[in-house]
Write a structure and sequence with these properties.
Layout lengths: L14 H10 L6 H13 L3 E4 L6 H11 L3 E6 L6 H4 L1 E3 L1 H10 L5 H8 L5 E3 L1 H7 L4 E6 L10 H9 L1 E4 L3 E4 L5 E6 L7 H5 L2 E4 L5 H11 L5 H15 L9 H13 L14 H4 L3 H11 L13 H5 L7
Parallel strand pairs: 1-8, 1-9, 2-5, 5-8
Antiparallel strand pairs: 3-4, 6-7
The structure holds adenosine-5'-diphosphate and magnesium ion.
Adenosine-5'-diphosphate (ADP) binds next to helix 3, helix 10 and helix 12.
Length: about 325
């Protein structure tokens, strides 16, 4: 551990510095993550982080905010998200009150007044642009937006500015660090990708996952962490509806510690598999694999199904 710095925590000095300071926030980044986060800072480009659910995308942005002493501004994307929730909205109530109060005032003056910044409700993208202090802007799960709605982001991502027709263009005085995450449920537009630096994040190696478990789970022994990460890896290799993510591996390790487990192997793992997996079929498949049983209930390997009945299922 380095001695606490007297200066304000701020920019990263190098890719290694990224890895080191993220470790201080209990986030274990591999060298590629360290390098790409560093490059995004130097190039002042938004970082598009893509990968399966629970692989550490959101947590990366959070940890970077903490490591740099920045405020985190988060925009959670969903279908139907619009300008008024992403960028800004006029404060209608306040505008009405102002109009009532200025009943005898000339309209031109009034209009100029009610369309000024103090009648604006800033939503995450505008807040990030307006902030005077260091900010990490997290646009989370952008693949949940319809592709047309991505356009809402483009001006912010490309020029760090927001244009408001009645008011003009608000330019960031200090560029926020921007993270976009995607679970890869659909392809993002070329326009969006072009503006970002791309960081694919996959499940970690067995060794790194073991270390993540050790940083995140109190009272976990190295032996158990090692066993958990190996079993999790072998389960991920199965053809599952929802492979276990890092968060589920953490939950499982916590469960085992709570139960006072000292060691876990293929024979006793099935007892707690429901903490790791979220579908009954997945649990059954993993259980059979761990116990060395054939994949199918009838004693046939699962893939034989497709030969037996190309339509799937038995009628
Ligand atoms: N590299 C990592 N180092 C430490 N913990 C991690 C790491 N990656 C993921 N985690 C853990 O997994 C959890 C889920 O990660 P999260 O960022 O929410 O996933 P997602 O990719 O779906 O956004 C985090 O809360 C954290 O506890
Ligand atoms: Mg997330």
């Amino acid at each position: 551990m380095t001695a606490p710095k007297v200066t304000q925590p701020s920019d990263f000095a190098s890719p290694d510095d990224v890895v080191e300071r993220l470790r201080g926030e209990r986030y274990l980044a591999d060298p590629t993550i360290g390098l790409t986060v560093y490059l995004a800072q130097r190039l002042e480009k938004p970082l598009l982080v893509e990968g399966p659910a629970g692989a550490g995308k959101t947590e990366l942005a959070r940890s970077v905010a903490r490591a740099t002493g920045a405020r985190l501004i988060r925009l959670q994307c969903y279908e139907g998200l619009d300008e008024s929730k992403a960028l800004y909205e006029w404060n209608y109530k306040k505008q009405l009150l102002r109009i009532q109060a200025g009943e005898h005032q000339e309209w031109a003056g009034l209009e100029e007044d009610i369309f000024s910044e103090s009648f604006l409700l800033a939503r995450p993208l505008l807040s990030a642009i307006q902030a005077n202090e260091p900010v990490v802007l997290l646009v989370d799960e952008i693949d949940r937006l319809e592709v047309e709605a991505e356009a809402l982001m483009l001006e912010v991502l490309a020029d760090f500015q927001v244009t408001i027709p009645e008011l003009g263009t608000i330019v960031a005085t200090r560029r926020p660090r921007v993270f976009l995450t995607s679970n890869n449920t659909r392809d993002l537009s070329e326009a969006l990708k072009r503006r970002c630096l791309f960081l694919p994040i996959d499940y970690p190696t067995v060794e790194r996952e073991r270390d993540i478990l050790l940083t995140r789970v109190d009272g976990l022994s190295v032996t158990l962490a090692d066993q958990v990460s190996r079993i999790v890896r072998s389960i991920r290799d199965l053809d599952l509806k929802k492979p276990p993510s890092i968060s589920e591996a953490i939950d499982w390790a916590r469960t085992l510690v709570l139960l006072g487990t000292e060691s876990v192997g293929p024979a006793d793992a099935p007892r707690t598999l429901h903490v790791l997996l979220k579908y009954e079929a997945d649990i059954e498949r993993a259980r059979r694999r761990l116990l060395g049983l054939p994949d199918d209930v009838d004693g046939r390997p699962a893939h034989v199904d497709s030969f037996r009945n190309p339509e799937g299922g038995e009628r």
